[in-house]
Amino acid sequence: MDVQIAALCDSASDYNGKLCLLGAFDSIYVQQFPAVHPHCSIALRLVFNQAEEGRHQLRLSLIDADGRSLLPKIEPAIEVRMGKDSYFATSNLVFNLQGMKFDKPGQYSIDISLEKNMIARIPLQVIQVPQNPA
């Protein structure tokens, strides 16, 4: 299995097998904490070979600098099926996240595992910026 794309973005969609991403980012700037990021998407494009056909367990975790998971479990099962004359199969996956809460600035990551093996890590930094004077 190969990870072709693993991105944190403003939005993403699978349009007839084409993975469409808008606004990939790795930094969130906020004026105060706790902070809530209203909406974002995690976009994945995975390529499986013929020997990997079948059911797989995926896991996504938002991890803080202390190694704690900040989201409820995201553990979808994915079914990989090969076409009759296919040499590989592609899975486009989009996960929409609402209201991600950050209690403090720091380095975070979105860790992606398949069958309990880490396949990708998307870095994210949350940075506090000064408030505008009144």
Mean pLDDT: 95
Shape: elongated
Terminal Cα span:
53 Å
Strand order of the largest sheet: 3-9-8-5-6
Summarize the structure.
The protein has 134 residues and is mainly beta. The chain has one domain: Immunoglobulin-like (Sandwich).
Walk me through this protein's architecture.
The protein has a single domain, classed as Immunoglobulin-like, CATH 2.60.40.2550. The strands form 2 sheets. The chain has a 5-stranded mixed beta sheet with strand order 3-9-8-5-6, with no helix packed on it. A 4-stranded antiparallel beta sheet has the order 2-1-4-7, with no helix packed on it. It starts with a strand and ends in a 6-residue tail after the last strand. It is built from no helices and 9 strands. It is mostly beta strands and 134 residues long. The chain has strands at residues 2-15, 18-24, 27-30, 35-49, 54-63, 77-80, 88-102, 106-114, 117-128.
How would the blueprint of this fold be written?
Blueprint: E1 2-15, E2 18-24, E3 27-30, E4 35-49, E5 54-63, E6 77-80, E7 88-102, E8 106-114, E9 117-128
Parallel strand pairs: 3-9
Antiparallel strand pairs: 1-2, 1-4, 4-7, 5-6, 5-8, 8-9
